[in-house]
């Protein structure tokens, strides 16, 4: 039997691919009440939204409520034991998600402040007797070392393995983990640690926000008629790297908190793909309407390139009716410089999650471009 080839009218255009695998609806366990610490940040706000959408009772602890969320809200100072006692008295959460930290000038201060916040928080909640699980978000500085000794000494080979030994340096991530482990042993709850890498997501005023930083940088360069120069190292430009989408990180925490086999385990959490900036940068530039340019012989940090950008931003705010006049609440030059300026490959292995059945996957490129579109739609970037 003879058949004819399909004509254009016989075919249909494939539907656009999504930027992530479908996220399961993780139904709350009976009586579940989630407390999200750092609820207004990139990680915390995504977690609040995902939990509420799944039907959990959610309380967010932050300076201000998550916009548009139906979650309950507690305002308490994480650096004050008395404030935590007052704010969390009789709250009785069953699941606690810690996604907050406070950047200090030295690692010794980072340890004192950030480990102290975990210790005091669990000293208040633990005796209430209701906590079943505590999830702590950290990052790949677990393997790279703190900013004061970043990438120095014998850094483990990539991809970073979750069972790697701690580095022989002081690190506030280690101190936070130790406070978590001690409280779990005292009060009888399970725990999980989630080591993310360069979280991209939606938030305003966050100290570590690459997506809005690059979008703001592009807008300023376009306004000034300058190219979109890759500010980092040639190693980052040519090598492979992974990132962590905030929704991926949120679902991973909920999965670990509700999966008995995942209890008392530290995990790496990344998108599941790898990208090269030399491929992604021109695509991002085209999406943002700027002329891409690769790296120079040495990094060209954004903190230097954007040292005089406040005037240009004020003009963009007036021209486009932008919602945030304070550039510092949109762009975190220092953090993006640290990520893109590294002279080493950085990516993480997710074997532990995969072997326990975790199937989350995000296309980093698609998620980044979709996030830029969201920021534009909300008039946060031009």
Give the helix/strand layout:
Blueprint: E1 33-37, H1 42-53, E2 57-61, E3 72-74, H2 81-88, E4 95-98, H3 107-125, E5 133-139, H4 141-144, H5 172-187, E6 190-196, E7 199-200, H6 210-224, E8 228-229, H7 234-238, E9 244-245, H8 246-258, E10 265-269, H9 277-288, E11 292-293, H10 302-305, H11 310-320, H12 333-340, H13 351-355, H14 364-377
Parallel strand pairs: 1-2, 1-4, 2-3, 4-5, 5-6, 6-10, 7-9, 8-11
Explain what the structure shows.
This protein folds into two domains: 27-196, NAD(P)-binding Rossmann-like Domain (Rossmann fold, 3-Layer(aba) Sandwich), CATH 3.40.50.720; 210-241 and 275-346 and 362-378, no CATH class. It is globular and about 60 Å long. It is 38% helix and 12% strand. Helix 1 links the parallel strand 1 and strand 2 (57-61). It is of the alpha/beta class and 382 residues long. Mean pLDDT is 93; it is low at 1-11.
Annotation keywords:
382 residues; alpha/beta; Rossmann fold; 2 domains; two-stranded parallel ribbon; globular; PRISE-like_Rossmann-fold; Epimerase_deHydtase; Epimerase; NAD(P)-bd_dom_sf
Mean pLDDT: 93
> Would you give the CATH topology of the largest domain?
Rossmann fold
CATH hierarchy, class of the largest domain: Alpha Beta
Task: Give the total of beta strands.
Answer: 11
Report Rg: 22 Å
Look at the helices and sheets and give the structural class: alpha/beta
Enumerate the strands of the largest sheet in spatial order, edge to edge or round the barrel. Answer: 3-2-1-4-5-6-10
Specify the CATH architecture of the largest domain.
3-Layer(aba) Sandwich
Largest sheet: 7 strands, parallel
Shape: globular
Low-confidence stretches: 1-11
Distance between the termini: 59 Å
Tally of individual domains: 2
SSE string: EHEEHEHEHHEEHEHEHEHEHHHHH
Q: Please give the count of helices.
A: 14
Beta-strand percent range: 5-15%
Assign a percent range to the helix content.
25-40%
CATH superfamily of the largest domain: NAD(P)-binding Rossmann-like Domain
InterPro entries: Epimerase_deHydtase, NAD(P)-bd_dom_sf, PRISE-like_Rossmann-fold
Organism: Serinibacter arcticus
Region (Disordered): 1-30
Biased composition (Pro residues): 15-30
